[in-house]
Amino acid sequence: MQNPTSIEPTSIEKARRPNILLITADQWRGDCLSAVGHACVKTPGVDALAREGTLFRRHYAGAAPCSPARATLYTGLYQMNHRVCRNGSPLDARFDNLALAARRAGYDPTLFGYTDTAPDPRGMDAGDPHLTTYEGVLPGFTARQLLPEHEKQWLSWLRSRGHADAVSRDIHIPVGAEAGDISNAAPAYSADETQTAFLAGEFIRWMGEQDKPWFAHVSFLRPHPPFSVPEPFNRMFTPGDGPVFARAASCEAEENGHPYLAYAMPRSDKGSFIHGARGQLSGWNAEDFAAIRAIYYGMISEVDAQLSRIWQALKDAGAWDDTLVIFTSDHAEMAGDHWTLGKGGFFDGSYHIPLVIRDPASSAAVGVVDKFTSAADIFPTLCQRLGIDAKNGLDGRSLMPFVRGGSGQGWRDAAFWEFDFRDIAHGEAERHFGLRSNECNLAVIRDARFKYVHFTALPPLLFNLADDPMELDNVAANPAYAAIRLDYAEKLLSLRACHLDQTLAYTELTERGPVTHRP
């Protein structure tokens, strides 16, 4: 299953050079859209975009956490090729990406937010401060407004608006609450003063300065933790709202489900999710997880409101019908499923993400796609739309056939993602399991019927999704499923064999010189 990296643009694409607006909302679950029928979350902003575009219901991240997920999004490569294994893994400078490609198409791709790209240290001075953080900028982007996790730029903006206490991330602690409390009380800043509102405003101001087609990437931090949100979003949902949690009877039962879970779950820290909290997630009970999920839903609504603001600004500027909009996330959020929060591992809750593409040049675009799509498909989609070639082989495939209203004949029938849990700096996972770093990884192939999880050096998992959509019953060791397990293991092996780096594999030196043929 190969993808073309040299794709002929249509006459429409050649004639019209659109504005490009790529929006990511960090840690947004793919099921948390009213457009796909969520039990309580309402997303009128995303829904409005979907009514004029294409909604992809089965869209999946290629990896987790942030840096590996974004590497797949930006390069069109699976983790097995881009090799960004964790936050802090450098992105090899030899790879092409969507910002560099946009420059070749004549754009000045401009960033609002962050890309979490650790630079390739080869060729850099050992004392370069860029080598002390994974929160670098993807090569090719012009950074108009950075907003890394320390949020200093936003805090400075808050102080300019009269919030003298906005000197640290303690501003996220709800008014009247103590650090570490799970509280739906509002923080000191208003709905017009969130990080999302700040970045949206900076993008809108920049857009008003443009006099030629532009390319912008607006990378929102929310609904990424810490879980806190201002009025009215903090009280939109109650702990009883939402679907039944997908989880075992207890945290202990969940941990007993697999050696990786027994390792990872006790190492998940409360402070990663509630500002100032201490201790392990296992110290929170079912009511705590329900309260946190209600706040998370409110954070989604807060971002959605700013999306509506951006749509209106585009229309007010007369740019709506000239702008290709892509809305997605880097990865998702467990939100209490399987007694955990955050992202990683193998459960769908970490990887199923939203995707909506609205192309004003495609009048037949309105529709819903149920095929399995990947974050790796975004870069090749932009390549086709802009009529440019990637400079290396890609793992993703262009989504333009769907955006134009087609059926995507010959499309993949499964989702694929990877997770690497090595710990290069400290070696904790390696010591715990007695494994080498390159053995600390897993790969998932998941279709509409089954989900197979292959660990390089730990026991596999197999879930019968038709009977067990919550992924609670691992049948990998059940003799009745032995043939199915083998079948999916072979599918995974074939997928990986097809997607080994193809950059020069399609080139052969002959007596007439190099011949290149990409299917």
From TrEMBL:
Residue ranges of domain Sulfatase N-terminal in the record: 18-388
Record has DNA repair as a keyword: no
Signal peptide segment: none
GO molecular function, one term: metal ion binding
Keyword match Translocase: no
Gene3D superfamilies noted in UniProt: Alkaline Phosphatase, subunit A
GO terms under cellular component: cytoplasm
This protein's name: DUF4976 domain-containing protein
Annotated source species: Rhizobium leguminosarum bv. viciae
